[in-house]
Amino acid sequence: MIVAISATGCGVSGTPTAGELDLRRLDTGPYPIEPIETGAEYDHSMLGGRLLAGMRLADNVVTGSVIDPALTYGSADLIPDAAWVHNYMTEANRTVLERNRYLYGVVAGSTNNKSYDVFVNYAADDDLAALARRKNPAFISTFIMQFPDATAATRAAAELEETDFQVAADGNQRVPLAKHQEAHTHWRPGVPTIGSAAAHGSYVVYLNIGLGDPNLDRLAELTEKTYDAQFALLDKLPALSPKEVLRLDNDPQDILRRVLNPGRSVSPSAIDFFSYGPTGFLNWTRSLRGLRDTFAAVGADRFGVGWGTIAIRTRDADAARALAPKLLQPPGIEVVATDAPPNIPGGGCVENRSELLRPKRFSCTVPYHRYVAMVESNQIVDVHQKVAAQYALFANSE
C-alpha cells in the first residue's frame, strides 16, 4: 500500500510541520518499496537455518579490539557448511569438519593494518629471513564452530590442530597454555604467529593470532585472553540441535523486511541479506567499526544488511537522526560533501575517498522514526533513487 506521510514527522510545539509527503512523487527508480512479505514467505531449509544460526552465533564472537584496542580493522563471514571453508582452512581441515558432522559457524578477524587480509596467515608461509626483514601486522582470526555434541567437538578440536601442526611438523613446537590446558596449541619458533583449537561444550574455538615480532609469551597471553572472552560469550548461548536450526525464524527482530532488497530475497544470505546485533555487526563491518561507542550511545540494537544497504534500529527518532550523519563519515573514512537526495527529509550524501574500506563512490543516509539506513552506489542518480526507495520502504513497513 502506498502511503502519504509527514515530511518532518512530529514537530516541536509552536512550530508548524510541513505538508504530507506523497511517496508516489519520489523517484525510486527500479527499486521495490514494499516489504518482502507482500511477495513471498520464507520457506524453512537446512541451509537457511544454518545461516540464521550463524547470525545468532556472530553476536557472541568476541571482537578483536576487545582483546587488543589496536586491532581496529577486519571483517567476518558466515560458514553454513564445511564446503564453504576453502577461503579459511586447508582441504585437510575441511575433511575434519565433515568427519565430525560440522553444523555451522562464523569466522571473524581483526587486525591493525587496513590493507591486510586477516584470514590469510602469510607469515606461516614465509621463510624466517623474509619475516625478519619486514614488520608483520598484528591480527586475531577466530573461527567458532558448532558440532552435534561435546564428543564431536572435542575430537574435532584435536584433529584440526594436529592437521595444522603436520604442515610443518619438523619446525613446529607444541605450546602448553597454563590457563587452558585443554587447548591444542603450536607455533614455529621465529614465526610471529600461533595456532590453537579448543572445544567448549559443543563448540570449537579455532584461533590464529599474529604479532609484529615472534614473541611467544605475548602470543600465548593473547591466546589465553581470547579464550577467556570467547568462552564467556559462548556460555550464554545454548548450542542448537539440527531440528532447532531448521526451525529458526528468518527475521525475529523485524529488521530485514525494512532493508532495501532489489532482488526481493526472502531467504537469508551470507553475502547480501542478513542481520546482526551490535557485536555481530561490528565483527562484520569494515568501515563502521569506529562507531562502536556511537552505536551504544544511540541504542542501536539491530542491523539489517542488504545489497549495498544497511538498516539500523536505534532507541528512538532523535537517536536515528543523530546517527545518520555519523554513518557517512566514521573515523578513518575520508569523504567530501555531495548533493543531498531531493525531497528526502533528513537525507544526506557524501562522495567517498577511502576506496579500500568503502569501495562504492557515493553513500547516502536517511532516518525514519527510530530507524536509519545507509545506501551506496557508484552513480549519484542511482544512490538518490536508492535512498528514496529506502525511505518509502521504511514508511510502507510501519
UniProtKB/TrEMBL annotation:
Q: Where in this chain does the record put each DUF7373 domain?
A: 44-249, 256-397
InterPro entries of this UniProt entry? DUF7373, DUF7373_C
Q: Which domain of life is it from?
A: Bacteria
Pfam families annotated for this entry?
Answer: DUF7373, DUF7373_C
Name of the protein described by the UniProt record: Uncharacterized protein
Query: What is the native source organism of this protein?
Result: Nocardia arthritidis
